DNA sequence: GCTTTTATTCAGCGTTCGATGATTTAAAGG
DNA sequence: CCTTTAAATCATCGAACGCTGAATAAAAGC
């Protein structure tokens, strides 16, 4: 047992009232608004919308609860802001990646190459984009599985990207029907969702043989698994 | 606008106090304990643990909130009871199905046949087991994606079934490595999870071309998609 | 330099939450 | 028949919740 009394009021910040004086080095502290979003992103990704209180968000961000409402209005507005913040970056990058791939490989596109181009951005952000991106990945995964929240943002940013992917797949599998491709994507989407969530289930199931956090390996397996899956659900070429 | 005043106290039940007199036809009303579990199952599957209040469960079950605590103790105990109720049935049936398939097809097993045997029980329960089973499917899907809850039950009932499946897959793909099979299962698990959740995301994405509720179609696609995927991630046979 | 705007904490309101002890009624047990 | 146990409601408690109006301090604008 530690002798530290964590309940003691550590006067780390005097909690001055009113607008804070402007600090020069804006690289360190970052924006207050952003730090609230960071805290909310972290907590929402772990416990869901109802499992997080405004007080917890405010405490983790180091601000008063009223400030959360000042910036984002009701709790739902905070959630939407968190979900929106990275949605555009995330999807623009995926779409650009597959467009670039298609342009550089006219006539020689492969399913493996195209899917890898589409899947790699989220994996890379989750790996190297800092903790915020990892939390966001888990949040998207969770939201995709239960779209009570984020439904509108999903439709606005995520659906067009997926439709573009399916368009390009049609160039590789010209005999494929739309309905086949949508169902195939659905299977891939579930795999992607579960993987980005990094729940640790696989670690336990495999007795440590596989590690959820090993996203590079996960991406490789997913590309191979899904490419074969897409081919299998489409009518064979003549 | 309806002229009905829905706030008026409809005296549908006088709410008598004390132990209720025994009713003869126990086929109609069902057990009170079970009806609380049914209500909780429905609500938890839609809104998650924190998104449901004891009061809502009690109201939907038509009982007092104190009765929920009488049967299940704390709220967490209620959730665990919901999750446990069908876990054994669900997994015993899956394991029996693949064991039966393996015994009836010694030496002639196919991946398609084995996976179909393993996947069909949950799909069939969700389709024909009544609304309770559909809610439970969604709950399992959600819990698999965020195992803050149900982790222990998952490990106790679900992991052994999956390990048995992988054992049998090894008979079909003898050259496969364990790590390949676990990662392949992980991909399938995500697809299964998302599909059983019936979130409606695919309906919207495909502009109505695919229907989430069409589980028979979903199962067919999943068997074909995953069988090819399993083969693709394993070293080719010599 | 004065005024307005922005960013922040404080104090607390009304509501809802999970949970409990007391009470009531009927069944079960001898 | 009497006692004990089981099954239910009622009334309510203290804590936590989302949210807000007022106060305050610095920055921005003119």
Automatic annotation (TrEMBL), chains A, B:
Start and end residues of each stretch annotated as Disordered: 1-29
Keyword Transcription regulation: yes
Keyword Transcription: yes
DNA-binding region: 53-72
Residue ranges annotated for the HTH tetR-type domain, each copy included: 30-90
Keywords in alphabetical order: DNA-binding, Transcription, Transcription regulation
An example molecular function term from Gene Ontology annotations: DNA-binding transcription factor activity
InterPro entries in the cross-refs: Homeodomain-like_sf, HTH-type_TetR-like_transc_reg, HTH_TetR, PsrA_TetR_C, Tet_transcr_reg_TetR-rel_C_sf
Transmembrane regions: none
Protein's name in the database: TetR family transcriptional regulator
